Amino acid sequence: MSETRNKILALQKYLESKILGQEDLVKKLLITLLADGHALVEGAPGLAKTKAIKTLSECITAKFNRIQFTPDLLPSDITGSEIYVANKGEFEFRKGPIFANLVLADEINRAPAKVQSALLEAMAERQVSVGGKKYILPDLFMVMATQNPIEHEGTYNLPEAQLDRFLMYIKIDQPNAETEKKILRLVRGEVAKESQPHFNRLAIEDILSARNEILAVHTSEAVEEYMVQLIVATRHPEKYDSALKGYVMYGASPRATIALDRCSKINAWLEGRDFVTPEDIQTVAYDVLRHRVILSFEAQAEGLSADDVIGKLLSLVPLP
Q: What is the pLDDT of residues 38-70, one digit of tens each?
């Protein structure tokens, strides 16, 4: 076990001690960070979405910025803008909050399309263009956007093409009763400080080193074929189950294949293996595919979700 992997596992354990009942969210955020991607997290208010990314930022020697999306937000509020400096007699670029290592885009669906696209362009191109000049974003750059699924008044849904820019679309649910008690005790301060694990902050170089180690994780031809067949199945699900005919309007793109490959390698690495198994693919499949499988009106009318279709395909596509 490498020293780098030990540090990442220690980070995971520490985050789980602070973000109670959201072990899956913690793991998927780490996978997104190590994959050099971005995450969209959906969950009701009060489920520690903001706390999760903020705590993660505190564990890394990295700059963190939070952007609260509102209907009156402007693109320049995110990217920054050129300001005239009178004593210099020239314009000077003042960087916006996007210039950080970890960025929380809180309630991204509360801002109109122009503002959303400004953020998503920076995510895809890793640069900001203002006044004919390009400003490069940091090597370690991750956006975690959140959205509230239970309130749609005054919101602007992200188009499918923009959703595809997110590596993972993570959905979180309410904690169980036992976890609820632990949360209460933690907030009250009833948990002794000495019982809480201490964590030394990771350097950005540790994250970059982990990414290099993950490149060595092997995917066999059989597992690779399984991955590809799973993606193809999202485009033609009727080949596996005639009942699914007409339910999928658009299947996953090659970007999904790349994301599935990258995330499954990281999951294997976190589990201590240097090779990918079908279980690794299945672990990350929902989060990688749920925003890339577009259902037809017929499927939606019958109450089906993308998760239902993905689950069905996972049970039908033959394992290697």
A: 999 998 888 888 888 888 988 999 899 999 998
Q: What is the pLDDT of residue 151?
A: 67
Q: Are the CB atoms for 25 and 179 separated by under 8 Å?
A: no
CA 88 vs. chain centroid, Å, equals 42
Of 110, 117, 128, 38, residue with least CA distance to 73: 110
Q: What is the mean pLDDT of residues 141-163?
A: 81
pTM of the model: 0.90
- 25 and 170 Cβ atoms separated by less than 8 Å: yes
For the record, the structure tokens of 118 come out as 């400004």
Q: Is 208 helix (H, G, I), strand (E, B) or coil?
A: helix
CA–CA dist 149, 159 (Å, integer): 15
Token pair recorded at residue 197 = 């694990």
β-strands 294-295, 248-250 pairing:
antiparallel
Domains (range + CATH), the chain:
35-173 (3.40.50.300), 216-316 (1.10.8.80)
Compute how many other C-beta atoms are within 10 angstroms of the C-beta atom of residue 193. 7
C-alpha distances out from residue 21 to 148, 174, 175, Å: 19, 8, 6
Q: Tokens 């000495």: give the residue.
A: 194
Tell whether the model's pLDDT for residue 194 goes beyond 50: no
The predicted-structure confidence for 114-149, as pLDDT tens digits, reads as follows 888 888 888 888 998 887 888 899 989 999 999 887
Contacts of 182 (CB under 8 A, 6+ apart): 20, 21
How far is 193 from 11, CA to CA, in rounded Å? 18
Token digits for 235? 């485009």
| Rounded Cα–Cα distance for residues 271 and 32 (Å) | 16
Residue 264: which of 27, 15, 26, 23 has the closest Cα?
27
What token pair was written down for 198?
A: 């201490």
User: What would the mean pLDDT of 149-164 be, rounded to a whole number?
Assistant: 77
Identity of residue 313: L
